[in-house]
Specification:
By secondary structure, the protein is α/β, with parallel strands linked by helices. Helix content is 42%, strand content 21%.
């Protein structure tokens, strides 16, 4: 079955071009010129993925993301012409699954779409085989997608969860930045280590007693990161 992708962008030429190329690549595509229109559309038909421009008229992309999250579980890729890191970080922290900046090559966009759909469409049987993992006072349940620290639940984004999962599975071992990029984000992200740096910082803020002096997720200079199990 074709995956349905909703393109939300106030640039009519852009959204029609993107939708056309998505259809040429084998996807079903629809488009909306505003967040309000998009919200009406998803009530009629739930998309498998949303390409969402940050700089929308009226309700902007960040506000729209909050509304989308209340109605659908479809992954969201932010599209932005503003290269300031703040926009990208805010989007990911609010729960966007990925981002891409304009101008972009269509082949790059298609690679991001394919990667996000692959990550979020894992067969239920494969997910069910994942077992709860424990590292000291950290417990992760991949099937329920829950994390507890000393018995207290943690609120993590999907990517933060995946990153912590990778570290916990090999607690005490050093994982290189490139290994984490490939495993958590996909091979197309190799060469973009800042994505890992940002998410490591967020994780430390949520699980460390003193994020500025981490005792759980340690940096091994010039190599990568390792998680040290700690008891409460």
């Amino acid at each position: 079955m074709q995956k349905h992708i909703l393109v939300v962008d106030d640039d009519e030429l852009m959204r029609r071009s993107v939708a056309f190329n998505l259809e040429q690549a084998g996807y079903q595509a629809s488009n909306a010129g505003s967040a309000e229109d998009a919200l009406s559309m998803i009530r009629r038909k739930t998309p498998d993925l949303i390409l969402l421009d940050i700089g929308l008229p009226g309700m902007d992309g960040l506000d729209a993301l909050r509304q989308f999250r209340e109605q659908v579980s479809a992954p969201v890729i932010f599209v932005t012409a503003r290269r300031r890191e703040l926009d990208e970080i805010l989007g990911l922290e609010l729960g966007a699954d990925d981002y891409i900046t304009k101008p972009f090559e269509m082949s790059v966009l298609l690679a991001h779409v394919k990667a996000v759909l692959r990550r979020t469409s894992a067969p239920a049987a494969a997910i069910a085989q994942e077992e709860t993992v424990v590292a000291g006072d950290l417990t992760l349940d991949p099937l329920a997608h829950t994390v507890t620290l000393a018995g207290q639940p943690l609120e993590l984004t999907r990517r933060e969860f995946d990153l912590l999962h990778a570290l916990v599975l090999r607690a005490g071992q050093v994982l290189s930045t490139q290994d984490l990029l490939t495993e958590v984000w996909g091979a197309e992200y190799v060469g973009e280590p800042q994505v890992v740096y940002v998410h490591i910082r967020w994780l430390r803020e949520k699980i460390e007693d003193k994020p500025e002096k981490p005792g759980r997720i340690l940096t091994v200079r010039g190599v990568g990161y390792k998680l040290i199990p700690r008891e409460s």
